[in-house]
Amino acid sequence: MLKTYAYPKFPYRQSAAQRDGVTQRHPVVVIGAGPIGLTAALECAARGLPVVVLDDNDTVSIGSRAVCYAKRPLEVWDRLGVGERMVEKGVRWKVGKVFFGNDLVYSFDLLPEPGHKMPAMINLQQYYLEEYMVEACGRSPQVDLRWKHKLLSLQQHADHAVLTVETPDGVFRMEADWVIACDGANSDTRRMVGAEFSGQYFQDRFLIADVVMKADFPTERWFWFDPPFHTGASVPGGAGTPTSVLLHKQCDNVWRIDFQLGWNADPEEEKKPEKVIPRIQAMLGSEVDFELEWVSVYQFACRRIDQFRHGRVLFAGDAAHQVSPFGARGANTGVQDIDNLVWKLQRVLDGQAGPALLDSYHDERAFAADDNLRQSTRSTDFITPKTPGSLVLRDAVLELAHHEPFARTMVNSGRLSTPTPYLHSALNTPDADSFAGTLRPGTNAADAPMADAQGRPGWLLNHLGPDFALLCFGPAPVGEVRFGGLSARVLTVGRDLIDSEGLLAQRYDGRPGTVYLLRPDQHVAARWRQFDTPRIQAAMARCLGH
After folding, report:
1. d(CA 308, CA 387)
2. Helices (H) and strands (E) in the chain, counts
3. How confident is the model at residue 239 (pLDDT cuts 50, 70, 90)?
4. What pLDDT, on the 0 to 100 scale, is given for residue 364?
5. Vertex 14: Cα angle to 9 and 17 (nearest 5)
6. pTM above the 0.90 mark?
7. Cβ(222)–Cβ(215) under 8 Å?
């Protein structure tokens, strides 16, 4: 039990198909009701896809676990109707500070420009995140969320998968056109399909201590290299070795503190209150009152699956990739997996695209995973130098960063999560015209404040809808462009959207006549300097893998 949160207990219910002994086929079955599985359920529901979610537990995650959520995942959750509640409950922040010993090396701002609906980051305990999404699933007739359902085995056929599931009422079978595996780093589903999961384990351990206290620290990310209150002498076998500490504020006056312990630490011993409390007192001072909320010791890895698609099974989140916690790339990356996947799955199920479109899910998200693994590995190597020479170099960079701006770009306390653009995706239509700025094909659309035709204030991303959209800076000859059974709705700046602060044109280099084709996942598919229906249709066809 936690001091600040009461865990809900969700009821197990026997399905009618199980009761009647019927093997029922479902369009989509999701394995795992963590943040990624619940996001998948809500995304399917938003796109009209009936979805069954299986989870072997009957409550939300134990402990605060993931706490940092970045702007892009918040935009995805906002589209699914839960983002505003998360932001309201969470702690907003955008400033980080890096210390070396007692000295402030430098600070940074993750979102220095105004005019975005979602903040750069919020800190929110994972159990709140899951609770809000479970409630949203309960309001959707498209979502069948089944607790105490454990996947025992999975067999694949040409056009479906057969799942054997264990419940308190016994074992039964169900079928799925497609399975989305979101069952975490120790995924049973991954083992069942024989997928390989390769990469690097890091020989280091960190202590997470969530403490309840009223403190006057600002709502910023503070990271210490070699803090005086947590030296190498205070970790097992660590005399003379580098150490680090990370501090974050969560809601309910809960603070997350990460202590680097070193590889020689005994996880069970270091979790004991008599070991944890002195570390926190050394950091905060003996006069600060606090209570331990949750304690864990972890070792991390940087790994990913060989293929995100294995036949009828599609992997997402930690089931597909693991990163170190520095940079908040775990859950944030998993949400973007789902953002990429489900619109493609919808097109395949609707017969508007062939299953080969799902291969682009692997192409785009494996590329993003590799980028995240690279960034995460670099962060870990900087935070935990492996050789004396690496330590000398790191400390020299930190010293220089006090007064030399160029050195600050070399300091790596965890490059914080940002979306990886799919710049080389086969679904992109390359630019034929000249553009300024960074919104190249494959990049997620930038939000901006605007008003609708009635003058009501709002945000661009909330107006794009779940399908293809055409953002036009100037009059368009038609109200939509159709390709096959699909249509791209035209949104004209100046008529449908009022660029109330001029930021829309600025961010999209929106000279008169400019047109952007945006994918259903709010990524730029193509852009031109004039409206050309055949070119738009060709770009839509390319987006569908034709």
Report:
1. 35
2. 14, 29
3. low
4. 97
5. 150
6. yes
7. no
| Cα dihedral value 497, 499, 503, 504, nearest 10 | 30
What are the angstrom distances between the C-alpha of 53 and each of 166, 249, 334? 14, 32, 17
In angstroms, rounded to a whole number, what is the distance separating the alpha carbons of residues 420 and 368?
A: 5
State how far the Cα of 77 lies from the Cα of 133, in Å rounded to an integer: 9
Distances (CA, A) of 402 to 98, 221, 361, 399: 10, 18, 43, 6
145-160 pLDDT, tens digit per residue, is 999 999 999 999 999 9
Going along the chain from its start, the domains and CATH numbers come out as 16-89+121-197+302-375 (3.50.50.60), 449-543 (3.40.30.120)
What long-range pairs does 482-487 form, CB within 8 A, spacing at least 24? 482/537, 483/537, 483/540, 483/541, 483/544, 484/352, 484/541, 484/544, 485/350, 485/351, 485/352, 486/347, 486/352, 486/540, 486/544
pLDDT digits 0-9 by tens, 283-328: 998 888 999 999 999 877 889 999 999 999 999 999 999 987 776 7
Element (H, E) at 93: strand 91-93
Mean pLDDT, rounded, for 456-467:
96
Question: For 478-490, what is the mean pLDDT?
Answer: 93
What letter would DSSP give residue 250?
A: -
Q: In sequence order, what are the beta bridge partners of 452?
A: 497
Averaged pLDDT for residues 504-531: 97
Work out the pLDDT band at 387, boundaries 50, 70, 90. confident
**Which run of H or of E encompasses 209?**
strand 206-212
Report the DSSP beta bridge partners of residue 103: 100
Contact in structure between 156 and 63 (CB atoms under 8 Å): no
